[in-house]
Specification:
Layout (H helix, E strand, L loop, with lengths): L11 E5 L4 H12 L3 E6 L2 H11 L6 E5 L5 H15 L4 E4 L14 H21 L1 H6 L4 E6 L14 H21 L4 E7 L16 H8 L4 H14 L3 E3 L5 H18 L7
Parallel strand pairs: 1-2, 1-4, 2-3, 4-5, 5-6, 6-7
Helix pairs in contact: 1-8, 3-4, 4-6
Bound molecules: nicotinamide-adenine-dinucleotide.
């Protein structure tokens, strides 16, 4: 169990990918709990629309256009948000993109973009936003958005590159939790199944099957509610409704079987 942040009222949060989908739903759910917001996204128009939607909440809301794949953008946003909001208690490294397609079909640009946004976006958030959580010494929490695909590679929808980025986010989050043990900063990794957002429509090579699966997914509002409950409960892995249990059992069963078969006498490592 991660450490617990407790009551969210009066706290301040940074959300990346806040102009749409899960990030926007998190912004609404947090504002309803009395949290002030720093919203970041690459989509300037979407951010402005989010600010207008959230204004009636009465919370303090700041926005910044940034590209999470750029270290300098995230560093500058961290400084600006701290100057505007003061103590930051919650960070959601949520911005992400789909990168469907078979491994051989993707271009170098596709690969660079997928790892730039999905992996380096989280790395930059860890390097520049997490220090803000340390500064005030009070309870705090960071949530990295991975995916169910970070734990289990779908056998029928080709999205291995996306899975590779999200499996990196799971590993980064597990490492971050270990490194922050003993501090008052909790960590969670969000591993959603399909969530009904525009992510697949924005994707360069998404399949009809992926689009249909996402359109039939959980509502972002429901997911946001689950995330806030999980933060308060100190859960590390956060799952949304998904059919991947059998896939996970198969994957981990195969790994453990191989380990068992190949154990040789000697010093275990
Ligand atoms: N929708 C799903 O089924 C699903 C499932 C598992 C995981 N996820 C993950 O959830 C997160 C949110 O996705 P969503 O479904 O809400 O999608 P979305 O497309 O609705 O929202 C993603 C947001 O991230 C922003 N963004 C994209 N690239 C960016 C960049 N370089 N810098 C800053 N902002 C950028 C987009 O403008 C958008 O506002 C992503 O990390 C995604 O991989 C989504």
């Amino acid at each position: 169990m991660a450490s617990r942040i407790g009551d969210l009222n009066g706290k301040a949060a940074i959300i990346t990918g806040a102009a749409s989908g899960i990030g926007l739903a998190l912004a609404h759910a947090l504002a309803a709990k009395g949290v002030d917001l720093a919203l970041a996204d690459i989509d300037a128009n979407g951010l402005e629309a989010a600010r207008a939607e959230l204004a009636p909440s009465g919370r303090r809301i700041f926005t910044r256009v940034l590209d999470v794949s750029r270290d300098a953008d995230v560093r500058a946003a961290a400084l600006e948000f701290e100057a505007q909001l003061g103590a930051i208690h919650l960070v959601f490294n949520n911005a992400g993109i789909d990168m469907s397609g078979t491994l051989e079909s993707l271009s170098e640009e596709d690969w660079t973009r997928a790892f730039g946004v999905n992996v380096f976006g989280v790395i930059h958030g860890i390097r520049h936003f997490v220090p803000l959580l340390r500064r005030h010494g009070g309870p705090a929490h960071v949530v990295n958005t991975a995916s169910g695909a970070g734990l289990w590679v779908h056998s029928e929808i080709p999205m291995g590159a996306y899975a590779a980025t999200k499996s990196s986010v799971v590993a980064l989050s597990e490492a971050l939790e270990q490194e922050l043990r003993g501090t008052r900063i909790g960590v969670s990794v969000l591993c959603p199944g399909p969530v009904a957002t525009p992510i697949a429509e924005r994707s360069p090579h998404s399949s009809e099957r992926l689009r249909a699966s996402i359109a039939a997914g959980a509502s972002p509002q429901k997911v946001a509610g689950q995330v806030l409950d999980a933060i308060c409960a100190g859960e590390f892995y956060i799952f949304t409704p998904t059919r991947m249990k059998a896939g996970l059992e198969q994957r981990f069963g195969r790994i453990l079987d191989a380990l068992e078969r190949q154990q040789v006498a000697g010093t275990p490592t």
